[in-house]
Amino acid sequence: MDDAKAYDIETSILFDQGQHIDVAAVAAAQTPWWNRTLTAVNDSVVRLGVLDGDFHWHKHENEDEFFYVVEGQLDIELEDGRTVVLKPGQALTVPKGVMHFPKARGRTVILMVETASVVPTGN
User: Fold this and answer.
1) What's the predicted TM-score (pTM) here?
2) Per-residue b/e over 46-60, b at no fewer than 16 CB within 10 Å?
3) Is the pLDDT of residue 3 over 60?
4) Is the four-CA dihedral 20, 65, 29, 104 of positive or negative sign?
5) In this structure, which of 1, 15, 25, 120 has its CB flanked by the most CB atoms within 10 Å?
6) Domains in the chain, ordered, with CATH?
7) Strand, helix or coil at 38?
């Protein structure tokens, strides 16, 4: 996708603290590109993404971003030329200010942890 507006991203919190979250069921009901904030944890949020294909090059100037793959494969190209391949059960924290390009290889389900102030499409 070339246009960040084409992604289905919503930052409203879906589940309150103390509320049971069936992450697998929520993910199973979605089609790519779907990205939602599941819940808040202190000053951060946990986001669920159901992805397929490329996102775009972007960075978050003031926030680190944690990616955890639940199912599928997520390749993350970094500005230093490396590509980190994440499979189920694997994770990566992209430091603030680092350009990165997430690419889902087929339907991929991920959890992300980032500050509540983050702009999901980057800045």
Assistant:
1) 0.90
2) bbbbbbbeebeebbb
3) no
4) negative
5) 120
6) 4-113 (2.60.120.10)
7) strand
Q: What's the confidence (pLDDT) of residue 75?
A: 98
Task: Please give the Cα distance from 35 to 71 (Å, whole number).
Answer: 15
Structure tokens at 44: 């951060």
Task: Indicate the SS3 state at residue 46.
Answer: strand
Rounded mean pLDDT of 24-35? 94
For 33, counting Cβ atoms within 10 Å of its Cβ (0-12 exposed, 13-18 middle, 19+ buried), the class is: middle
First-to-last alpha carbon distance for the chain, in angstroms, is 17
Q: Is the pLDDT of residue 16 over 50?
A: yes
The amino acid sitting at 67 is: F
Is pLDDT of 107 > 70? yes
